[in-house]
Amino acid sequence: MAAIDLNTVRSTIEGRINLELQSDSPKIPVVFNNVSYTPQLGDSWVQCLINFGDNEYMSMGGTTDSDNLVVGVVLFNIYTSTGIGSKDNFVIGKRIRDLYNRINVSGVYFDPPVGPEVVSSSSPTGYFQTQVRVTFESFEEL
What we know:
There is one protein chain. The protein contains two helices and eight strands. By secondary structure, the chain is of the alpha+beta class. The protein has a single domain, classed as STM4215-like (2-Layer Sandwich). Strands 1, 2, 3, 4, 5, 6, 7 and 8 form an eight-stranded mixed β-sheet that branches. Strand 5 and strand 6 form a beta hairpin. The radius of gyration is 17 Å and the shape is elongated. 24% of the residues are buried.
């Protein structure tokens, strides 16, 4: 086997959230790393940020016949209108939690989600913002 393709892992994660939020009405825009986006004030939207973190040896060896554990975290920033309560935001948060909660998709293992947690200072301003975090692992066979 070869080293893991991080873009394959990224594509697996991004594909799930994009399909979920683009297939329902109303469609909710999803913004990914390194993509510019100018939201319309009052519209709901989700930012999906994938970060790869520390990895671990699963078996000893060199660059062949050994295994690694590749770990990371997905941050979902959920933005909804201010002044109307948290209901709409938490509905989106539940959909995201259900989408990734303790499942295995194409060799990417998702842990139980954290959140939605309220972010006290929304960035950008003018939105009610929460965040859902999901850690994940994938195994690399060298």
